[in-house]
Design goal:
Distance between the termini: 105 Å
CATH class of one domain: Mainly Alpha
Oligomer: single chain
CATH architecture of one domain: Alpha Horseshoe
GO molecular function, one term: metal ion binding
Protein name: Lipopolysaccharide assembly protein B
Low-confidence stretches: 1-15
Pfam families: Zn_ribbon_LapB
CATH topology of one domain: Serine Threonine Protein Phosphatase 5, Tetratricopeptide repeat
Shape: elongated
Number of strands: 3
Keywords: Metal-binding
Mean pLDDT: 86
Strand order of the largest sheet: 2-1-3
Helix content: 55-70%
Order of helices and strands: HHHHHHHHHHHHHHHHHHEEE
Organism: Pseudoalteromonas holothuriae
């Protein structure tokens, strides 16, 4: 009998293990069933616009399981897309009040809540959460807070954020934004030297050099104007239409027109049609009309341009008095056509305008709008 008991002990142990495992499995299934039921009920309340009851059920569910956070975020995103920002805000606030969530999940919830606040026009609340994220070295918060400070015109706050957290700034668009913050603050405070801080950026930027050159030109400091604009046109030749006439004038004022002509010749390989027109004007001043016509004709064969064609009509008219009047009338029509075309275009989203904007009204990117290119451009 005793031997039989010893033989049955392993069987009893195995039976107990199996029963215990099945019991735990059954408990887990029952818990999942309860969570699913509670979650479905909460969703139904929310979709039926019974928000208080819906959120109460969701709160209870969240206390039971943190694994459902992803569902909450998806639901909040759905509400935001539908324009129901109050619901999205409530869900994100609910999540932020849960103590059992990981730091990364909390950061995601805070970022999404800040986006809700921006769309709802609660900019101060959005700033509060984004500042917390930046202080915690969350790179994902940079784009939203830069856009927020641009919208609020809080240039100094953006500058202070950059100077306190330089290590977070890596994208060219970030540096373009902060460079423009320096420029806006300098213009607002009438302190042009503030722009010089932005000139120290290693990334390619436009506006500080443009504004400093413009300020110097207005003050008849042609040496400084040439210094800033020459740097800009060499590094960003596509910006030449913004200031090329004034740059030429500065060289003339200093009796250095020959140096301007040398600069134009240097820029020819990467320059647009305006640079080529300036080169033709230089040839005309030297009495080389035929060379100018040949150069521009060959150039237009390779890269057609309405503006280049207009200037070619003028050259041909100067070369033949008999058809000058006819060509002049044709040129008027071409110029009328050119006048209908936007002079500036965003290289990021394609927004076009007759006015230069440093911040694109469409995609909210800084320094992406420049002189238009292609057949109708510069």
């Amino acid at each position: 009998m005793t031997e039989l008991l010893f033989l049955l002990l392993p069987v009893a142990a195995a039976y107990g293990y199996v029963m215990g495992k099945n019991s735990a499995k059954n408990q887990a299934l029952e818990l999942n069933r309860q969570i699913t039921s509670q979650y479905s009920k909460g969703l139904k309340f929310l979709l039926d616009r019974e928000e208080d009851q819906g959120l109460e059920h969701l709160i209870q569910l969240l206390e039971v399981s943190a694994d459902s956070v992803e569902h909450y975020l998806t639901l909040a995103t759905l509400f935001r897309k539908r324009g129901e920002l109050d619901r999205a805000i409530k869900i994100h606030e609910l999540l932020l009040n849960q103590p059992n969530l990981s730091a990364s999940v909390m950061a995601s919830c805070r970022l999404e809540l800040a986006k809700d606040y921006v769309l709802a026009g609660l900019l101060d609340s959005a700033e509060e959460h984004l500042v917390i994220l930046v202080k915690n070295h969350n790179v994902k918060a940079l784009d939203p807070i830069i856009n927020l400070y641009s919208q609020m015109r809080e240039w100094r706050k953006g500058i202070n954020m950059y100077e306190s957290h330089r290590e977070l700034f890596t994208k060219p668009q970030h540096f373009a934004a902060i460079a423009n913050f320096y420029c806006e603050a300098a213009i607002s405070d009438d302190t042009p030297k503030l722009m010089e801080l932005a000139c120290a950026f290693e990334h390619k930027i436009i506006r500080p050099y443009y504004e400093l050159g413009k300020d110097a030109f207005v003050k008849n400091d042609h040496v400084k104007a040439i210094y800033y604009w020459r740097k800009l046109v060499v590094n960003c030749t596509n910006t030449a239409p913004l200031y090329i006439k004034e740059l030429e004038q500065s060289y003339i004022e200093l009796n250095l027109k020959n140096q301007f002509d040398d600069l134009i010749e240097e820029l020819l390989p990467q320059g647009g049609v305006l640079i080529r027109i300036k080169h033709c004007q230089s040839l005309l001043e030297q009495g080389q009309l035929h060379q100018a016509i040949d150069f521009l004709t060959d150039s237009l064969k390779r890269e057609p341009s309405i503006r280049g064609f207009s200037f070619l009509l003028q050259l041909l008219g100067n070369n033949n008095n008999k058809i000058q009047a006819v060509l002049s009338e044709i040129d008027k029509l071409v110029k009328s056509y050119i006048a209908t075309k936007p002079e500036y275009q965003c290289q990021h989203c394609g927004f076009s305008s007759h006015t230069l904007y440093w911040l694109c009204p469409s995609c909210k990117h800084w320094e992406t709008i420049g002189p238009s290119k292609g057949l109708d451009g510069y």
